[in-house]
Amino acid sequence: MDITLTHAVLLLVTGFFAGIINTLAGGGSNLTLPALMVMGMPAEVANATNRVGVLMQSIVAVLGFKKHGKLDTDDTVPILIPTIVGGLLGAAGAAYAPSEWIKPLLLGTMLLMAFIILVKPSMVAPELGTPVKQVSQTPASWWWLGVAGFYGGFVQAGVGFVLLAALAGSLRYDLVRANALKMLCTLVFTSVALVLFIIEGLIQWLPGLILALSTMFGAHLAVKLAIKAKPDTLKWFLFIMTLVGCIAAMFS
User: Fold this and answer.
1) 196-214 pLDDT, tens digit each
2) Fewer CB within 10 Å: C terminus or N terminus of the chain?
3) Running DSSP on this structure, what letter comes out for residue 165?
């Protein structure tokens, strides 16, 4: 499809901020999905094209967190297995499900996470020094991670919140390490989803690559912010982004 200068600037700006938001919390796709649809893309094409940027920002974020020693790999395989399975099922559903399902699912997720953060913030932001649990010790985390993978494969927007609930809430990682693992999970199930979307011919590559370029810069900056930020700062940023996600879901 043809890209105007206005469209390119829109993708660069929204992609940059989405890269920051997705790395520190979640919901950045609430910016990029409308930007892609403004260009005339059907919802299912925008949903698929958006994954190009998500994939690239995830790679940058994972490498950044690993460089700073914040990516725990001891329990990676058990964390990734249910995420991959869920992502595969979710992507398959997204390729064939009615697009009008996306908005209610997104809004419901945002409202649930806002409620959890407000009523029981320790569920997504455990205190420093809280012992980390293994997936084998917490069977419920398999379900959380599977649901997160499915949701991410299906709609992507807001999946960071679901992953943080599994990683910080169930496994008790602090927010920085939970964000690092969240980006690794996102990288994996987005790769799975992207393959299916490519097979279905749903990717618009030029806008997808423009978006990817800007999300990469945003993710790079966000990793530096995450390393330096205080836990309370990250917690409030997460809460604010959840509220913004609710508003975006209601009016998108």
Assistant:
1) 889 989 999 999 999 999 9
2) N
3) I
